[in-house]
Amino acid sequence: MSSKPVVRFLDRTTPPHLFTLVFTAGMSSMAMNMFLPSLPSISNYFNTEYRVMQLALTLYLGTSGLLQIIIGPMSDRFGRRNVLIGGFVIFCLASLGCVFAQSAEVFLAFRVLQASIAVAMVLSRAIVRDMVPQDQAASMLGYITMFIAISPMVSPAIGGFIDEAFGWRAIFWFLFVAGLFAIVLIWADLGETNKHQSASFAQQFSEYPELLTSHRFWGYCLSAAFATGAFFAYLGGGPFIGVEVFGMSPSKLGYVLGAPALGYIFGNFITGRYSMRFGANRMVLVGAVFGGMSSLIPLIVFSLGYGTPIVFFGSMTLVGFGNGMVLPNATSGMLSVRRHLAGTASGLGGALMTGGGAALAALAGVMLVPGSGPYPLLWIMLTTSSLSVASIIWVILREKQVGIS
User: Fold this and answer.
1) Which DSSP category does 19 fall into?
2) Is 379 found in the same domain as 274?
3) Could you tell me which residues come within 8 angstroms of residue 306 by beta carbon, excluding any fewer than 6 positions away?
4) At what angle do helices 280-303 and 375-402 cross, to 10 degrees?
5) Helix (H, G, I), strand (E, B) or coil at 378
6) What is d(CA 159, CA 165) in angstroms, rounded to the nearest whole number?
7) What is the mean pLDDT of residues 221-241?
8) N or C: which terminal CB in the chain sees fewer CB atoms within 10 Å?
């Protein structure tokens, strides 16, 4: 395919428009975050404890991680378009189930089914890699994830406004309508991009060793997973640092916790602008180094006795900036190792990032105790960022040795 394919909006005989990929992928984070301000009111409605209703988030994330392993192979076998539409159909039905649920158990069951929207995040990456070469894919993914980064920043505010104006059920009506719009958009604009569908799952599984024994695939995966892990560790430990170390109020903490998102958007912009010029591997390496600086700088400053909230949270913009460079480029790399298994690679890579990040977030929560200061969190972040650097160096050296593993 041409490096600059002709794109006509709502014409599925041409590659999908950027708006289609951005909207469908953004739906995944929107579905995860939009209802969060309504958790207390949902708990009150079902007369259950808040911690029980929090399962609507944790079960959703767990199911999403598991589905990412399955979604990729299914799309390699049946095509991106069919699996994407099927996932959104289930999501819409599950959203209606949440609207009409009469008990907490039924609500949680349908909330778990809403995790089928994970198809949007997994397959948007695979679709991009189906269409264009590796460095251009990294550039496109940079622009896509730059817009996607905005969704988790604004969707809770939108959800809170909808809840206050119309009640919590209106949020799931909103998601239902948005899901229907996505189905129409996919149907009209997105043709099948997987031109090399496997004949059967048996054939596909027989090709797994080709992917799983690739040094480059695991190098890209680990670089992305460790970079993401630093960010998830921050999410797990940042609130503790803000409250216990700096004595921040919840409202002020809410503002500063979003610091990485600002860096992430800028990192995605740099990726979209320069990946084709400098190459994906170099961009991953630079991004991973910036990720390491996000913890190294405050470690040095705090050890000298000059630690402040501005130093800590300001430095966290660097972990977002680094992730904005690492993730699109490393994702493009892992999907390029075996192009006929791009869906499988996307699913496995996404599951590894989600699972590893969740584990590091839990580790940060365990290690941070009163009196520990920010040091345990910063050391976790520095370690994972360093491993991200080592992983991409491994890929670069491997390519110099043998070209393709």
Assistant:
1) H
2) yes
3) none
4) 150
5) helix
6) 10
7) 83
8) N
Are 108 and 222 in the same domain? Answer: no
> Which residue among 197, 220, 240 closes a domain?
197
Note the pTM of the prediction, 2 decimals. Answer: 0.68
Tokens standing for 147? 């817009």
266-322 pLDDT per residue, tens:
888 888 788 888 888 999 999 999 999 999 999 999 999 998 999 999 999 999 899
How many whole angstroms separate alpha carbon 313 and alpha carbon 82?
43
From the CB of residue 218, how many other CB atoms can be counted at a distance below 10 Å? 22
Identify the three-state secondary structure at position 1. coil
**Across residues 348-375, what is the average pLDDT?**
76
Q: Is residue 148 part of a domain?
A: yes
Say whether both 178 and 253 belong to one domain: no
Look at residue 204 in the predicted model and tell me its pLDDT. 62
Q: What one-character-per-residue DSSP string does 382-396 give?
A: HHHHHHHHHHHHHHH
Handedness of CA 74, 80, 86, 90 (dihedral sign): positive
Phi, psi of 121 (to 5 degrees): -70, -45
Q: Which two tokens stand for residue 220?
A: 């890209």
Counted domains in the chain: 2
Which amino acid does the sequence have at 277?
R
CB 207 within 8 A of CB 342: no
206: exposed, middle or buried (Cβ count in 10 Å: 0-12, 13-18, 19+): exposed
Give, in order, the Cα–Cα distances in Å from 34 to each of 171, 174, 175, 229, 241.
Answer: 7, 10, 9, 23, 25
Contact 139, 271 (CB under 8 A): yes
- For residue 124, the enclosing domain spans 18-197
Same domain for 142 and 23?
yes
Structure confidence by residue, pLDDT tens digits, 171-201: 999 999 999 999 999 999 988 877 766 656 6
Is 2 part of a structural domain of the chain?
A: no
- The confidence band for 396, taking pLDDT boundaries of 50, 70 and 90, is very high
Residue 181 located in a structural domain? yes
Residue matched to tokens 């690679």: 345
DSSP letters of 308-369?
A: -HHHHHHHHHHHHHHHHHHHHHHHHHHHHTTGGGHHHHHHHHHHHHHHHHHHHHHHHHHH--
